[in-house]
Design a protein that fits this description.
This protein is an alpha/beta fold and about 140 residues long. It is built from seven helices and five strands. The chain has one domain: Rossmann fold. A five-stranded parallel β-sheet has the order 3-2-1-4-5. The two termini are about 25 Å apart.
């Protein structure tokens, strides 16, 4: 089964109808056949960006609870690797949520990410070598 990482920007766009990429991300998500994986920092960042409304936060958390994406926790080793990556990519910059996704990609062998962060994920590399395939496609 195909697996893909879910980044914050695409997650927000899926849930926020006022986001300019909402329709594009929803359309891509509906056609996606596979499993989305994300991390706790991405979930936290998404909840924060959706705003303080309990209704919008509930929608975000229920997306995970209903199987829209699987939540993968960090281990001490993955946290240490995330710090190393944040230092390496500090000029881009790489935030903590992005770093945890790159670590998850390395650990799970996933090279595809559902993101709106072209600048970051076009530059980030797994184990310093392999790049990411980005979805949804940008025209």
């Amino acid at each position: 089964m195909r697996s893909m990482l879910l980044d914050t920007g695409a997650f927000v766009a899926l849930l926020d109808k006022s986001e300019k990429n909402h329709d594009r991300c929803v359309s891509y998500f509906r056609g996606f056949k596979g499993k989305l994986l994300t991390t706790e920092p991405v979930l936290t960042e998404t909840v924060y960006l959706l705003g303080p409304s309990v209704r919008t936060q509930r929608t975000c958390i229920e997306f995970i609870l209903r199987g829209g994406a699987s939540l993968v926790p960090q281990s001490p080793g993955s946290l240490a690797r995330a710090l190393d990556l944040m230092e390496k990519y500090k000029d881009i910059p790489m935030d903590f949520a992005d770093a945890t996704l790159v670590v998850l990609a390395e650990e799970a062998g996933i090279d595809e990410v559902f993101t709106l962060d072209l600048r970051g994920f076009n530059a980030f590399r797994m184990q310093g070598k392999k790049g990411f395939r980005i979805a949804p496609p940008f025209e």
